[in-house]
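User: Sequence recovery, please. Input:
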């Protein structure tokens, strides 16, 4: 987590505007700092914000895998949202440790996954 802020940072990369706005609102209401884009060209530069969690549509990731591996902190989690298992597999092959969630997206499942990761980060920081 970021020393300058208590709130964990989540980067959302999603082309579906309605889902992007919904995720941003839900995460902010839950106490997360959010940054977002629907533009694949902006994803790379936004990775430099070092989010705690990256939630990205599978279609926005191809060509960005090396930047994601290089720019995301090792403690960050990547969640890939995909329309079908084949699309998810193609992306997660390139991003070891990424979590896949299929459409239609369970917002409760997404939140639980993010919250579990953030809690683990907090516990690790308290020990270290």
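Assistant: Recovered sequence (128 residues):
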């Amino acid at each position: 987590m970021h020393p300058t802020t208590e709130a964990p940072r989540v980067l959302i990369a999603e082309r579906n505007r309605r889902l992007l706005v919904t995720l941003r609102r839900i995460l902010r209401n839950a106490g997360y700092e959010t940054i977002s884009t629907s533009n694949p060209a902006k994803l790379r530069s936004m990775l430099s914000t070092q989010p705690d969690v990256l939630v990205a549509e599978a279609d926005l990731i191809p060509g960005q895998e090396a930047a994601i591996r290089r720019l995301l902190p090792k403690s960050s989690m990547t969640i890939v949202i995909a329309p079908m298992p084949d699309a998810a597999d193609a992306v997660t092959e390139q991003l070891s440790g990424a979590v896949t969630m299929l459409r239609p997206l369970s917002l409760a499942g997404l939140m639980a996954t993010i919250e579990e990761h953030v809690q683990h980060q907090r516990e690790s920081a308290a020990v270290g």
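Strands lie at 9-13, 33-37, 53-57, 77-82, 99-102.
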